[in-house]
Structures
1.
Amino acid sequence: MRQQYHALPAFPITVSPNCMLASSAILRRQQFLIRSLGGYSNQTHVERMQGTKVVAGTNLEADAETILRTITPKLDPNRHKGQAGKIAIIGGCREYTGAPYFAAISALKIGADLSHVFCTKDAATVIKSYSPEIIVHPVLEESYNIREEQKRSICAKVLAEVSKWIERFDCLVVGPGLGRDPFLLDCVSEIMKHARQSKIPVVVDGDGLFLVTNNLDLVSGYCLAVLTPNVNEYKRLVQKVLNCEVSDEGATEELLSLASRIGGTTILRKGKSDLISDGKTVNMVSTFGSPRRCGGQGDILSGSVAVFSSWACQQMPAAKEDSSGSTPNPMVLGCIAASALLRKAASVAFENQKRGTLTTDIIECLGKSLEDICPAI
């Protein structure tokens, strides 16, 4: 029987695939009815949100609001700058500047005190222009900028620059807007190794997942790592690790097996319902968010996971062991909280903007959405 965590109410629990199948069937019937009625009117949106409550009654659904209230720190005038979270994004190249910004600004909107971005020189000025709130470090290099004989010394220089900061951070997010330049990925691999040695939590998203899929040793056996794959990224992970194709019917057991084979790394499988597993438990967050699938929502999620995971890690020293001698996995807690908050913010943004909803609209709803669940005062 698998080990379970029980320190928080209704979280997490081990489930059978039959429960997952039943939940999926309910969702399919609801979606068929909605499509038959047609449209995305306000009433339809409300009906969809109400419909998800049926799934929330299953033993697969996480008690996300309780977790959010438990791990979100109270605002305290006696705390100083940085104690509510210092997050760093490793990503951003000349082609992709929006993704690292979305992740970094989302962390601040949720309540982190400081948000850094380590990016290439070409991306730095652009990212700085988006917001003065973000601290930008133009230290990463791409291969087109350097000669072959310089690569070793420049990689060492990049690592030295990041290492000066890394132990100050509560969590790293690796991958948003990173690109796939081979030299840049080699440098980021060294950064990830250093973060692991320093026991810094790491959230891997976007092109960071491309890097990790081809070099599983970067996260294998590291319990403070989180992978946040979308449909295609998850498919590549399953093919690489389990040597098979994705099975929708056995989604729960497959995710358990995948996380277990990677050594207990937490995986947040994004989809209509987000599934989260560390190889011991599976949790689902299925609250309806938005039918608008604008790009950048995954970047919001990665920044959010970083903040909530770091907050959960802060709570762990004070967590009391239950009768089974286990404590909650803070990375799983962070994933559940981030997934639920993003869905709530996306729902609010869609109510206001409908088809015109953009990632920036969702980001603007993060603070109010968290406030509705965890009032600051």
2.
Amino acid sequence: MADLLRLLLRVAEKAADVARVCRQEAPLFQLLVQEKTGDDKNKKFVQDFKTLADVVIQEVIRHDVGAQFPEMVGFIHGEESNKFENGLGESVTVTVCGTEEETATLLATVLDGNHTAASLLARAIHQDPATIDANTDGLSVPLSPSELGIWIDPIDATSQYIEGREEVLEEGHLSPSGLHCALVLIGVYLRSTGEPVMGVINQPFNHKDPAGGGWRGKHFWGVSFGNVNVCSVSRPKDGPAGGRGLSAVLSSSEKQVVKETLTSLCGPDKLMYASGAGYKILCVIQGLADVYVLSEGSTFKWDSCAPHALLRALGGGVADLTRSLQSSSAAQNHQAELTYHQPYIEAKGADRWANHGGLVAYRDCSQLCSIISALKGKL
């Protein structure tokens, strides 16, 4: 497991490099801008570049993990399909090839012959990232890769990534929007039970390097299985609520009844809003908010698997909101924890992997109980 964690930290950093290159290199950035400008978009690009950036990152992770752990190949799932149609109507499957030149040639067919952009992307895909410093020595978990599956969200909060607002992160404060909300999420789950056992989160746009002006990232990770609970983030020292009352983060589009109920419970100054499901759960992990509540089934397994593992390592979790509200006792709340191994058979396409019952991400069970008690009978 320590070897798998080290690999995931490395491939997440490579993915973050690809995300940064797409914004920093002019030929690639122009393709992002085209995606942003709607009517002015180059009609040649049948598939938007935003999606190609997502797919490239997903396939890099799939390729590198599969190369080191071939027994996981059939169980590495992602948000995106890797099939594209270019301007000539040709169907192209995006994969990572054996050499940088071969990958560039393949990408050029998707990008309708834009060799400059294809070469820049291929270089980022094939370069080795800097070694990630993580204290994984001595991490011993009695699981083998053949028991595990992976969920990848290559760029969570894609709209923030495209919009590209460069907000400055203030230590200890949640920042509601901006590039920092865009995250690379890699979650590992147990195939037999679906429980999340490992998560890696990379925030490619955490801060700017004062010397060079380029973006620098930050990574977070956690492992939770049996008696092993290790996380790169520390639990807040002042206990669950720290005597300061409950705080919650929501989507700005959340139902009015949820907003009103949580305003009453937390107080208006403790109710916050932010972009991106992954970023909102990261805010809970970091202690910037106590809970994240979502009443809609608008997130997916790839959004929640990685941060769920970190919360478990900290003593918290991510519960299905609907099932928690239907539960007759707080003791059953653990049975409402999200799992990641089985599709929702009544749905089709991506919706098979939606978190249909909404969710509550929490760091402490008492916080979950407070939320469920407040919302019972309201939804």
3.
Amino acid sequence: MKGLYCKLSESAEQVRFVIQETEIPNVLGSHCVKVQVKACALSPLDIKLLKDLKLQRELVPVGREIAGVVLEVGPKVTFFQPDDEVVGILPLDAEASGLCDVVLVHEHHVVRKPEKVSWTEVAGTIRDGVRSYTALHTLSHVTAGNTVLVLDGASPFGIITIQLAHYHGAKVLSTTLSVEDKQFLEQLRPTIARVINMSDGKADLVEVCLEETGGLGVDIVIDAGVRLYNTDEETAIKKLLPHKHDIIMLLAVGGHWVTAEEGLQLDPPDSRSLFLKGATLSFLNEEVWNASSACQGKYLHIMKDVVEKLSNGTFRPQLEDPVPLYEATVSMEMVQKKQVRKRHVIHL
């Protein structure tokens, strides 16, 4: 049986993806289910996180968001039976690649898949859905009437976040990194209150957000990374991101800033500004759900809600056409280098 794995170099910065023969254990654990994989989504591999958690190995399994059919269940499994259709996210310490024909996974890492949702659609949405719930529910407690700013709203995560915010009755503002992305977001329904194109350098994000909120500021900011300093060495994409001072300035009193910038540094004046506004800063890391067994029930509830909203049309992801398994290495290299915007899904 073949799977996709990441081969790390000595520097751990240069990575190579390979198709490797692998075997799964013959004995099924008490709470494990054996799943025949029908579709697997590819997401960038966080090498630094694996290193911090001491999960590095010579071959790191790739492809964690899976959808498939249950073939067999362990003796103590209570949630599933053979022939059930399921979707889930393999844990960070999983030994098998999600692109294997068959994987073993604990029953607490998968939920039932709705019948009318396709394999590729559910596999390509589950992780972005969990990430959006983490940002809007767990970290910022979105409610009706809030104003939410989603940076890079045309990304797969951004689209789902916009749709979830609209579902809860929030007013949504969004930035884009190109004219094409702006045109795409302006066609979304429900309508986004303001789409701000950052690619031409003409829009002043702080000014626009304060104008849209009557000078009160934005209640929730979900960023896609921020600029820490103004330097000429930044990449073209990085230069399009807002500066950390801009986000602090546009936050409302009592606002919530949810950041994906793991290396964010705040100077004392920045902290003072957040203090004066009574604002909060949270770091978005959806992997924390598996860091404590106490969070497992909430994690399963979130995944169930994601697939339910996908089934009833609340979530309408924008995915590329699925690619075959033999294109997996090339597709994963593009995903890792962030050369593609939409999620690649392998249909097995």
4.
Amino acid sequence: MALHLMRKARGCWSFIRAIHKGTEAAPAPQKDGVQRIFSGIQPTGIPHLGNYLGAIESWVRFQDECGSVLYSIVDLHSITTPQDPVVLGQSILDMAAALLACGINPEKSILFQQSQVSEHTQLSWILTCMVRLPRLQHLHQWKAKTAKQKHDGTVGLLTYPVLQAADILLYKSTHVPVGEDQVQHMELVQDLAEGFNKKYGEFFPVPKSILTSMKKVKSLRDPSAKMSKSDPDKLATVKITDSPEEIVQKFRKAVTDFTSEVTYDPARREGVSNLVSIHAAVTGLTVEEVVRRSAGLDTARYKLAVADAVIEKFAPIKSEIEKLKMDENYLQKVLQTGSAKAKELAYPVCQEVKKLVGFL
């Protein structure tokens, strides 16, 4: 068993090095050989194409390659904006169903509900007392979100990057899959880990970011913006539970340009290039292969080809989600079991932090 775990840990490390592709020097493995990945997703709405390609698809690969993987439905983060309690409760179960249908396996990873592990908020408060207010006010997501809310952002919205840091550090995570828009928040996580270690002694690993290859899926209606659950234009975002008819309609209405040829040029042809990137990601082909195979198609016909590829990719996932949502008891059991496993890891870390800080 020990030999198996050592081999799995080495396999995890090789996998992470491959993802970095030499762009960043890989840190030396910890003395105990453990490498741990943590990531979270808010339960606000059904995952969309961007969530799937930018995060969930990678999550499935990580759990097959790494010895210790935690995925959290971060319901505490979701209430930084107003939520209907009944809707939120159902959304947590719906997100669990979606993740399981996409391939997250509770036997290979720990899938849990954030609010069920109280140590997240305990560590978050300790870290909050270590960060200066201007640091949080200068984070670009705070600026962007408060601008949209006409400067009516809550304290929770301001401090949620610190809770995010607590999520990660609580499990002594070594790697975190992130999108480009989260890099600044990861810098805060790293600074908090280093600051804690400097003050109280070496304790937290300084986690590394893993940027997924499909970094950002763009809106179908505004290819200069990221695809988002909250986009008011319903044609902009493709949900993984959309019907074939809905998917076709959304791709038909996707913004391109006045050139009919299919090419990949993100700087000058954002809309078409976004479609090519999506097509490549859902089929497993390279961008070059997609462009070559699409020779002779005008953009109108190409949109339908991309829609067909997305429909084919999501059909089995959509079917499995529908089955899982019929069994709420099973979904609750998965989250309860996962939360208990997460708490087993979190409790001793939080107790040691309290002792270092001087609470015990």
